Amino acid sequence: MGPLENLTIVEMCGPLGEYAAKLLGDMGANVIKVELPTGSPSRKIGPFVDDIPGPNRSLNFFYHNTNKRSVVLDYRNSEEDRNLLLDLIHEADLVIEDHVPDDLPSLGIRYEEIAKRNTGLLWCSITPYGLDGPWSQYGASDMTALAAGGPMSMNGYSPEDVPDAPPIHGKGDLAYKTASHYAVIGTLVALRHRLKSGEGQLIDCSMHEALSSTTEVGLPYWLYTGKNILRQTSRHASVQRTDPWQFPTADEKYILVFGTGRSAESWLDFKKWLQNDGFGLQLDDARFDDPLARQGGRGTTESKEINSELAKFIASKSAEEIYRGAQHRRLPWGTVREPHEILEDNHFRSRGHIVSVSISDANKEHEMPGAPYHLSSTPWELRLPAPELGEHTDDVLGDLQDHSLRDR
Questions:
Q1: Which uninterrupted H or E stretch holds 221?
Q2: What global pTM score does this model have?
Q3: What's the CA gap between 396 and 72, in Å, rounded?
Q4: Are 355 and 382 a contacting pair, CB within 8 Å?
Q5: In the chain, what is the straight-line distance between the N-terminal and C-terminal CA atoms, in Å?
Q6: pLDDT tens profile 216-264
Q7: What's the rounded Cα separation, in Å, for the pair 32 and 88?
Q8: Which residue segments constitute the domains of the chain, with CATH numbers given?
Q9: Rounded CA gap, 131 and 102, in Å?
Q10: What residues have CB less than 8 Å from 331, skipping those under 6 apart?
Q11: Of 312, 311, 294, which Cα lies nearest the Cα of 303?
């Protein structure tokens, strides 16, 4: 079992917050996912097994809900089910929910009231804009959150690649996952405090504020210089145009290049590498000796010449040759990979990162990413595949009833 095996969590989340509960569940927590009879909205998000939609066939849902048990309670329409939900919460250590502010309180499910009885309860509320403030009742999707929070302003294409290109939505549920990661951090801090004091507390996690903390250079440039950053194709946004980072290879792949000879030693290795194949012979000129002249973000004639020679050199070789050669010279370059290449990666396989999860409704197994970190004494463990809708209702409510009888 993982390091959180004694932590019981009641989760009431859709796409915004369910990843937070997965991260804790994957580390051993007992996560009870409470769903309405219609099921979590994330069950309707594709892709689906064999492209056939269904509440138990979403691959998106199966990744984000491992190590959870599903309980169906119609807490919106049934007083009996609301009371059962309250009973579950009274027995829990932590609640994670992503409802609109005031939604659960309007149903009589209020943290302040519940905490009077369960004084050690931690309650993590993950919302688009926080529990208060003028935007607190606004809704948001992953895309609109990235726009309003700031990261989207830095994501897009250079004008020479796509003239007048708008900001681009970075994929992978980046906003939801950023909010969930911050929620986990806040929850673990609150858990640490409870271990010392016995006190529970409310964790108010705003996706908007989490995203504003991850705008990289955008906010610092504006705060310190009053300058806005410029979007650029596949590289950091900046206040001025920088040289490209991606170059096509002979086998029609791409190499992402970061740093070309920042130190005297690495510059010497870099030059020799190109010159052995007849490229970059002019790089021995004294005008290339100044590291500032070689930096791609300064718009120098020298940096443009370096990039021109580098592009021809990379175009003459396979991606594997360039990647291995760069690694040998301790250059932080990488091959731009396709999904199938990730699944075939021997390094991932050797570390057990790709795991198989069963999908009973489809009677088959699918692969997915596994542990994002390794703990030597209390490792990550795939104890349960994502649950079918209501799969554990009888078991969980039966345990709740037995516990209630023992307490009488």
A1: helix 218-225
A2: 0.92
A3: 10
A4: yes
A5: 31
A6: 888 889 999 999 999 999 888 989 888 889 999 999 999 999 877 778 8
A7: 9
A8: 8-214+345-407 (3.40.50.10540), 254-335 (no CATH)
A9: 8
A10: 257, 258, 259, 260, 266, 270
A11: 294
